[in-house]
Specification:
There is one protein chain. With 563 residues, this protein is an alpha/beta fold. The protein has three domains: 151 residues, DNA polymerase, domain 1; 148 residues, Beta Polymerase, domain 3; 242 residues, Metal-dependent hydrolases (TIM Barrel, Alpha-Beta Barrel), CATH 3.20.20. 43% of the residues lie in helices and 12% in strands. Strands 10-11-12-13-14-15-16 form a seven-stranded parallel sheet, with helices on one face. Strand 14, helix 19 and strand 15 form a beta-alpha-beta unit. Helix 7 crosses helix 8. It is globular. Bound molecules: zinc ion (2 copies). One zinc ion (ZN) binds next to loops.
């Protein structure tokens, strides 16, 4: 950081914030606030001058203490006062100060009770209903915070895939049917995080003239450069192309360079010429009316837009939502879900699945109402009764067990062995250096069937922890332990970029919704997109398997690892 007036103001704000969190002397806190107000009316050069001439205390509201902080910060980009007041708290707590609905003392509450230290973690906790039962919070506050977080995120410029898709859906619903209007770029390719929502249209001028208002978009008349913003504040761009070129150009705009080059060379092999707008044989233009037609003409299996990351495969079977025979990882009101067990099971059954694996949080996860032995007995009874009535549909008894400090699972073996499957996940103590060791220990545990949200990342929020993926994947393959592809659009974890190589080497994955409500089951689609990106063969995705084969896998894992 270079020293500047805004940096100084921000530094003073941080000190003030942490003083408030620690409930320091109110006079001291007020002094910081007053000093910031005075300083903010200065110019950079003026402040520089005051510092150089050692005259900071001549500024109204700046006493000796604050002057010392400013001087030290100017030279070292930090200060003793700051280090003392922040102690071992994470700096990311400051993000929470941007929420008007959350005073510093309450931030301390969510940090100490739920371990929440950033905006993304708070958002995730709200989505998992963690604030509902926290003293001083509740359903209403939770909803308000979620709204505010959404606005803050929009102002930061990037948008999650799920939010971009919601906006796209809304646009579509407002356009006349069969208006040419297709997502391209990162959105078209279903990237996890998107900077600009890009759409391909036929004639930009007439499209904008006809539909802009309908879409709730406004061009600012003062600027020549067209930059559109959606009502949620996301950047948006229209790209246009002539009708005849529409399908080919869409493929072009949803292909990675590697994928596009593979299409060009496939064309050359058939003595065709492919450009971003057309396909030609000698000098004759070939009529291409859909993206499917283009792939067919090139003699290549159709790759949907999200699967255009790698060079095209001549033939390949892509996983689809319909090919899933069931899924694992769902929570009900037994732990931190918002729908009852019965509603969750009914919804799963209504999807036409053959099986459904419920997995509440385990006992240590107090913040998520993790299940004690007695709750488990109660839930199992309810599941047994449900299964009796609903055969051949089968509910599998699972758990999302916390991975404890040294990699142990969260129940004694005599309970673990009663589950049909166990998902082992890290939920606490993210900072530990030996994350890889903890996960490796969990992989080796005879009772772990799969590893949940392996990197802990929250998109646009929490960085993934650093892991030795190679070692973990190798061990998972050797022990037949499954790695989850978590479909929650805030996670999408394990990152698809690791999946292709790993699955080709034999890794098994499971496309898991981590649903906390009935609607959460629909998140599976995000996982299907990620698996297609990575060209994962359906045979490596265990929830495309029939029940019998699955149960065999789970018992094989236990035998193999116990040996
Ligand atoms: Zn989890
Ligand atoms: Zn979960």
């Amino acid at each position: 950081m270079t020293a500047s007036l805004p940096a100084v103001l921000e530094h003073l704000r941080s000190i003030q914030f942490f003083m408030e969190m620690r409930d320091e002397n109110p006079f001291k806190i007020r002094a910081f606030r007053a000093a910031r107000e005075e300083l903010s009316s200065l110019k950079d050069e003026q402040l520089n001058q005051f510092i150089k001439e050692n005259r900071l205390t001549e500024i109204k509201g700046v006493g000796k203490g604050i002057a010392a902080v400013i001087s030290e910060f100017w030279q070292t980009s930090t200060s003793t006062d700051f280090r003392n007041i922040i102690g071992d708290w994470p700096l990311s707590l400051l993000e929470l100060d941007e929420l008007s609905g959350l005073a510093p003392k309450r931030i301390r509450g969510v940090y100490e009770q739920l371990g929440i230290s950033s905006l993304a973690e708070l958002e995730y906790a709200c989505l998992e209903n963690r604030l509902v039962e926290l003293p001083g919070f509740g359903q209403k506050t939770q909803e308000k915070l979620l709204k505010e977080i959404e606005n803050l995120k929009a102002r930061r410029g990037k948008v999650l895939l799920c939010d971009a898709i919601d906006e796209t859906r809304e646009f579509r619903s407002r356009l006349p049917k069969d208006t040419p209007f297709e997502e391209v770029g990162d959105l078209g390719m279903r990237h996890e995080v998107i900077e600009t929502l890009e759409f391909l249209v036929e004639d930009k001028k007439s499209f904008e003239a006809k539909h802009l208002e309908k879409l709730g978009l406004k061009k600012s008349p003062s600027t020549r450069q067209v930059s559109l913003k959606t009502k949620h504040g996301h950047s948006l761009k229209f790209i246009h192309v002539a009708k005849a070129s529409f399908p080919i150009h869409r493929v072009f705009l949803t292909s990675s360079p590697e994928h596009w080059h593979s299409l060009e060379s496939a064309a050359r092999k058939k003595t065709l010429l492919l450009t971003a707008n057309e396909l030609k044989k000698s000098d004759r233009l070939l009529k291409i009316e859909s993206e499917q037609e283009l792939y067919a003409e090139l003699g290549i299996v159709y790759h949907p837009p999200e699967a255009r990351e790698y060079a095209a495969e001549k033939s390949f079977e892509f996983v689809s939502l319909e090919s899933l025979k069931g899924c694992f990882h769902a929570h009900s009101t037994y732990s931190d879900g918002s729908d009852s067990l019965k509603n969750m099971l009914d919804a799963a059954k209504a999807k036409g699945w053959d099986y459904f694996g419920i997995s509440e949080h385990s006992q240590t996860a107090f913040y998520a109402r993790g299940l004690k032995d007695a709750d488990l007995q109660k839930q199992w009874k309810e599941i047994d009764q449900y299964n009796k009535k609903s055969a051949p549909f089968r509910v599998l008894k699972g758990v999302e067990s916390d991975i404890l400090k040294e990699g142990e699972l969260d129940y004694p073996d005599k309970i673990l062995k009663e589950f049909d499957f166990v998902i082992a996940s890290i939920h606490q103590r993210y900072g530990l250096k030996e994350m890889t060791d903890r996960i490796l220990a969990a992989v080796r545990n005879p009772y772990s069937s799969m590893i949940g949200h392996i990197s802990g990342r929250l998109l646009l929020g929490r960085e993934p922890y650093r892991l030795n993926y190679e070692a973990i994947i190798r061990e998972a393959i050797a022990t037949h332990t499954v790695i989850e592809l978590n479909c929650n659009p805030h996670r999408l974890d394990m990152d698809w970029r690791y999946l292709r190589q790993a699955c080709e080497a034999g890794l098994l994955i499971s496309i898991n919704p981590d649903a906390h409500s009935v609607e959460g089951l629909d998140d599976l689609e995000f996982g299907v997109w990620m698996a297609r990106k990575a060209l994962v063969a359906p045979s490596q995705i265990i929830n495309t398997w029939p029940l019998k084969k699955l149960l065999e896998l789970f018992s094989k894992q236990r035998e193999k690892k116990a040996a």
